[in-house]
Specification:
Length: 111
């Protein structure tokens, strides 16, 4: 390893820092709010208008049309496996769409 490479790695570790003792990894995403690390996916849900429903243990937002005559709930439900389920609920509280989704490093990716 050349002296230039060693110097570059040292500078990157000082200027970028390390996370919990890990080496710097530009592919790993970390999200912060007011200097505190937060879950990137949940932060995204909140920023898109989802609210946590503790009774159902899921995140939801409501879409409405026809001046509020019709509404649909869009839901993201965390699963014990660490994955998530996306649901669309409407028309008399019926689930008319359901999909398992995977969240990796705070980014949603379909399975």
């Amino acid at each position: 390893m050349s002296i230039i490479t060693k110097l570059y790695e040292s500078i990157m570790n000082i200027s970028v820092g390390t996370h919990k003792g890990e080496d710097f990894n530009p592919d790993k995403i970390h999200c912060y709010v007011d200097g505190k690390e937060v879950d990137c996916f949940i932060d995204r849900l909140e920023s898109e208008g989802y609210q946590y429903d503790s009774g159902n243990a899921w995140w939801e937002r409501t879409w409405s049309t026809n001046n509020g005559k019709e509404s649909i709930r869009e839901v993201y439900q965390p699963l014990e496996s660490g994955n998530w389920k996306q649901l669309m609920i409407g028309y008399g509280d019926r689930i008319f769409y359901e999909e398992s989704v995977k969240v990796e490093d705070g980014v949603l990716s379909n399975q």
